[in-house]
Amino acid sequence: MKKRVLVVDDALFMRNSIKGLLEKAGFEVCGEAATAPEAVEKYKELKPDLVTMDIIMPRIDELDGVGAIRKIMEFDSDAKIVVVSAVGEDPIVKEAMAAGAKGFLVKPFKVDNLIETLNSIFE
Description:
This protein is of the alpha/beta class. The chain contains five helices and five strands; from the N terminus they run βαβαβαβαβα.
């Protein structure tokens, strides 16, 4: 059975790019979100196996990517979230991991790294 993924990024181009890569690798992209509040809502609605989460997004309702990770983890402590962000600075990585993220990839990433990271979450 294909693993179901929710792709979260404020950039449509990046959502489409990640979606295409994941589908080629055998994942099912069950949903997309462009904002942190939408990500939390879609997670609750779709209950995906994994989320790719951008963390630098416009703050809406005081929620950014790290806030969305926290909200999703409050809802489901077993949630599997991998951060995919252009910002790889240590404090932000630490904050995202402390919030509950299981992995972190810096954009631009290699396709193999993305797939390996996601697959390793399920092992």
